[in-house]
Amino acid sequence: MLTDISLVAAFLVGLLGGVHCVGMCGGIVGALSLGMSPRRRSSSSWPFLLAYNSGRILSYAVAGALLGGVAWIAANWSGLHQLQTGLHLLSALFMVALGLYLAGWWHGLTYVERAGGGIWRRIEPFGRRFLPVTNVRQAFLLGVIWGWLPCGLVYSVLVWAIATGSPMKGFLLMFSFGLGTLPNLLVMGLAADALAARLRDVRIRRAAGILVMLFGGYSFSQWLIQYKMSV
Q: Which long-range CB contacts under 8 A does 41-44 form with residues at least 24 apart?
């Protein structure tokens, strides 16, 4: 069941995941900014950055709705009422794996990112049509494409969205997660080097990873309560 706590947790996972965004998306943010003159890297760049990220967050939310809908159809059409409970457990394990990944203690999620590389190679050429970016509309559409970039952080939360078993709940969960990623990526667009130096600090990465693992532990405890109630 999706709760207010889950939405807050999804937001915080996105916020803490900034340590991953800098490593994975720093180059992409630079590429997206090629159409801006140096003087636009100031207050006038805000409309472009907001448009980029609005498109990206919309893609996350749509993906959450689609996968939440698939889970809902599977659970109701096949009569597998335990499916959602199993997905809840899987999402909790993914959160723990994500925490280990962010802290730099385990890199298994890189294989998940590589698995999505084939799809990205087919989508990415569409994004090139909007480069160089010269207006807000192009920035938004480029952000929509960018939102489908293979990312272990996004995929981990998508598993959580599947576990909601609902298109609307999946949408809301991924939207909350996307909002959490927004501060880091907005700042990155204006001061990428300074932000990267700060978030690459091992202590910050490990603190973020531990907190995400705690979210995974909380999710597991919720699964355990549901499991005990069902037996």
A: 41/190, 42/190
| Distance separating alpha carbons of residues 58 and 53, to the nearest angstrom | 8
Q: Which pLDDT score, from 0 to 100, does residue 185 have?
A: 76
Half-sphere exposure of 108 (CA within 13 A, CB side): 11
Packed helices 18-32 and 136-146: angle between N→C axes, nearest 10 degrees: 140
- Report residue 3: phi and psi, to 5°: -125, 170
- Position 37 confidence tier, pLDDT thresholds 50, 70, 90: very low
- Within 10 A of 219 (CB to CB), how many other CB atoms are there? 23
Q: Which residues contact 181 (CB under 8 A, 6 or more apart)?
A: 14, 15, 17, 18, 21, 53, 57
pTM: 0.83
Exposure of 151 by Cβ count < 10 A (0-12 exposed, 13-18 middle, 19+ buried)?
A: buried
Do 143 and 56 touch, CB atoms closer than 8 A?
yes
Query: Which residues 6+ apart lie within 8 Å of 225 measured at CB?
Result: none
- 95 neighbors 218 (Cβ within 8 angstroms): no
Mean pLDDT confidence for 117-145: 84
